[in-house]
Write a structure and sequence with these properties.
The structure is a single chain. Helices cover 27% and strands 41% of the residues. The chain is an alpha+beta fold. The longest helix has 43 residues. The strands form 2 sheets. Strands 2, 3, 4, 6 and 9 form a 5-stranded antiparallel sheet that branches. Strands 5-1-7-8 form a 4-stranded antiparallel sheet, with no helix packed on it.
Length: 157
């Protein structure tokens, strides 16, 4: 026959095991909730927060040509630097995919050749139009620009 204190030791051991299991589960759940609430800050600290955009330019009336075309992009998404690219005479329609860091200006400007007019668009992930512009008159540039969302993975509606 087992001594009476042996049974109480076993039930105390089971109780400690349950308490440890609940404490570990609470720590894991708390850590997951903290990470969910702080993911934006973690991504900002890590760097490499950028938006993938598509620039488009078209013309109407006149020849399908731009006299000048310029656009802004970030050559390295982990650095805050940007580069303004300037193209000379460019066949229209034209498009390119670029990366622009969070909270920075995305910009494209197209000057039509001759007496034509131009239009431009900036598309988020190549789908959603976030900026558009049209020449105010023949031979005048169309300008599109938008400040990208400063919150990674959340573009305002």
């Amino acid at each position: 026959m087992a001594p009476p204190h042996q049974s109480s030791r076993r039930s105390r051991g089971d109780l400690y095991f349950v308490i440890a299991f609940v404490a570990i589960g609470a720590l894991i759940l708390g850590g997951m909730l903290w990470a969910k609430d702080h993911m934006t800050e973690l991504k900002k600290w890590r760097g490499e927060n950028a938006w993938y955009l598509k620039y488009e330019a078209t013309s109407s009336g006149g020849e399908p040509q731009a006299a000048a075309l310029s656009f802004r992009r970030n050559p390295d998404s982990s650095k805050p630097d940007y580069r303004d690219e300037r193209l000379g005479s460019t066949k229209l329609p034209w498009s390119t995919n670029v990366v622009v860091n969070t909270g920075k200006e995305a910009r494209v400007e197209v000057t039509p050749s001759g007496n034509g007019t131009a239009t431009c668009r900036i598309l988020l992930d190549g789908i959603r139009v976030v900026a558009s512009g049209k020449s105010p008159g023949p031979g005048k540039p169309a300008v599109c620009h938008v400040i990208t969302s400063s919150t990674p993975e959340k573009w305002p509606r």
